[in-house]
Structures are given as C-alpha cells and as structure tokens.
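Course assignment 3, question 2. Fill in each field.
Student: A.L.
Task: Predict the tertiary structure for the chain below.
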Amino acid sequence: MNVLRPKRPRSAALLCLMAVLPLGPPARAQVTFISDESEGHPAVVRLTVTPAAATAPVLKHRLFARDIDMKSGNAAPFYYRAQIAFRRGRDASRKEFSEDNELSRWYTFDRDATPLSQLPLERVQRAVDMTIGETVGRELAEAVSRRDCDWQTGIQDIRGPEAITIPLDGFQQNRELSRMLLMKIRLELARGKYDEAIGTMRTNYRLARDTSREPLLVCGLIGVGLANVTNGTLLELIAAPDSPNMYWALTCLPHPLIDMRPAVHFENNFAPRIFPFIQNAATTDRSPEEWNRLYKQTFSDLTRWGASQTRKPSPDADLGATTLALLGYPFAKSKLIELGFDPAEVERMAIGQVMAIYSERICQQFADESETMWHIPYWEMRKRFAELDQRLRNSNVLHGAENREVLPIMQQLLPAMQSAREAHVRLERELAALRVIEALRLYAANHNGKLPEQLDFITEVPIPTNPATGQPFAYRLEGEFGILELPRSDGMRYNRRFEIRIAEKAR
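Answer field:
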C-alpha cells in the first residue's frame, strides 16, 4: 500500500489538464490524495483496494479489547508514567530528526505525509524506539488493559475561576503519544505487519477514549482528534494489498466511541462552579455588603475570563459592575416578582442578591436547553441550536429580549457546545463511512471484483446511515469508481469525497 502525494497544481489550467489525462490501470492497492478542500470543492481521496470477504471468525481483528481480556484498576497512573518516560525520548528524537520535519511527515495522514513505500524504515524504527520504546510501550500496554480511567484531577470539587484554569498538560501530552503511535502503525503497515498495526490502532483508539473521560469539552475534543487521526491509519490499512476486512471490527467499536455527554452535563453546570456567588442564591444568608462585594468580584472575574477568551483588555471592574447593575437590576427585580417572589422581600434584598438569584435562574434555563440538544439527532439539533444561539445573542442586557442575562455568563459558555457536537458527529460520520467502504470491499469479494451501483445492492452486511443526516450516504458508481460523498451540506465544516476502485490484479 502506498500513499501518493502529487505535487500541488499551480494553476486552474493545470488542474483541468490533470482531470482529462488518462490515469492508466491501477497496478496495486493504494490511497492517493487528489486534492485538498478549497472554495466549496471537497477534498478528494482516491482508494484502490483489494476485495476482502469477512474474516473467519468475523471478529478475528478487533479495534477494542474484549472485557474478558481487561484487568481491574485505573489506567491513569500508567498513562502518567508513560508520559514521564516519553519526555526524554521525545526531546532526543526532536533533535535527531529535526531536519525537514521528518517526524511529522512520518506520522501524518495527508498530502504532506511520506508515502509508506518511501518510509526510511530503519530511521523510523529508531524514532519509534526512542519515543515509545520498551518502557513507554510497557506502561501504555498496562494502561489500555485497565477497565477504568480516572485522571483524578479533582475538577469536580473546584469552585471559582480556577475551575477553568486547571492544567491540561497531561491531556495535551497524550496528543504527542498518539502521534508516535501513528508513526508506529505506519511503520508496521509499510512492513506488511497488519496484525501488529491493528493492535497499535487498538491502543490509540483506547487512548482517545480514555482521554475523553475527563468531564471537560476540551478533553473530549482531544479524544475526538486522536480517534480521527487513527481513522487515517485505518484507511491506509483498508487500502493495503490483501488487507483484512475491518467492517465488523468497526461495527463493534463502542458507540459512540467518544461520549462527550458527561462533559456537556458537567460544563452546563459550569456557571455556578466558576461563579459560586450565584449558587443557591435564594437560600444563602449573607449581609447586603457581602452580596454586593461578591457581585463586584463576580463581575471582575467574568470580565477577566472574557478578556482571556477574546484577548481584549478588561474594562474597569467597578465602573462596569455599577453600569451593569443600573441596567440589569430593575429588570432582574421585576422578573423575580413575575416568578412568584414576594415583592416586599425582593425590595429588601441587596442588589447583588437580586442579580445572583436571577442569574442562577437564567443560566440554568439556557444550560438545560443546551443539554437537551445532545439527546436529539444532529439534524434536529442544528435547527434548534440555531434558534437557541440567536436568543443567546439577543440576551445581552442592552437588548429587549424577554429572557436576557444581567451577567453575560452563558454567552461565553454555550457557543462551544455546538462546535463540540459537530466534532462528535464528524467522528461518527467518519467511522460509518469507513464501514461503508469495507462493505464495498466485501461486496466486491462476492461479485467478481465489481462495485455495486447502489448501496442497497449490498445484502451481505447492514449499511449504516449517515449520522449527520439520518439518511443513506450519498453514493454512486461512475465508471470503475464508487463515489462516497461526505459533503458540507451534512452540517459539517468538513467536505470530503472518497473515490474507490478495485485493484486491477484482483479483477
């Protein structure tokens, strides 16, 4: 199997010329990056594959370990030890292989990657040995054999602005471990050691899933990223000569592979965690002076946090807090009375307490609506979240919305939720597309090396629907190519087309 990296065309005319030039018969299985995504056009990946029937037994190859093969215990300590041991080799490898970004070209899966057939095997082996050699490999093997993974950051117990500044160095370092595992997979594929490559993929998928278990969206997104890049090496395996069919291995992965719902549930309650001033505000006993002091402190923390998100300087906290109170307090007071609070009691409350009680209610309202979006299909969520996002945009205290924030907390928290859901569904769509490709190989094995005209011609295995739309994948047969589309119209910021054909020697 080979990953070809054609030179980038320098003009539109050259692109047209390339499109009409005869391709010639494919000699062997391979994957080729035809073009990158640009100006609404999809990234095109061309696969020349060999037919492959289901293995016997059908789960001879697994991408996730069986429970019976797992051990009791926590994986996190072994990951931490692997990270410590990894740092020494990582720094040394960066010095030795710094020329022309060798390491990155050995582990990436894109047009800039070194083709498998051109990998300098001995040098790549040395880089693997230096980074994830015996010690790191042993710790990773122990980690992925454990049933549980608790990173023990204690974030659930943290209150105040420090809840969003918890160090994430260990999770970021998992990215580096994953890259070296990708390099190892590609080395094993280049040497034709498919079983070993599948075993290393299994480690990387488990690393991705365990990384996402910390209930933070950023950790979930790291996990999604690690799984997505592992999919790239799986695509290289699919395009390898006479590689085993991975349809059932993909089908039996945990679903979803990366479950971000615990992180969504946790972060939807971030408002009272970061700003405990608003938690249980209606029943907490404080002096008026303390309520007002905490209100100003909360506003100061909120503006510093907002400045860190936008990289803009914060306004004067005292002046801003006073201005916001003048704008928001009368509205918040009237809303509490509408909600059934005794008017006389509301009048006796400190300004800070009124702002806190109302903020707690409106934050919970937006948070609850956001969380429900993760329990409906993506195509429904897109429409509903667009409406919620518009209401959130209009919830500034300066606007006249019926339900608006008097402290702009959820305006900064919620926008990340939609991006996280898109990333989550993109991974599920990619995994489903890989299953479709493997179903095509299986069909070809039973039909003299030919591809079906339509996906519903395949009866050997169930064909997954597109997780982004709930509809069948867009597929068509054009000459010798089966075209599988993953368009931007699915609601993704990711536009790809697979062009699949059967290797000449297998026909």
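Instructor remarks: Strands lie at 3-4, 30-35, 43-49, 71-74, 146-148, 474-478, 481-486, 496-502. The longest helix spans residues 415-446.
Grade: pending
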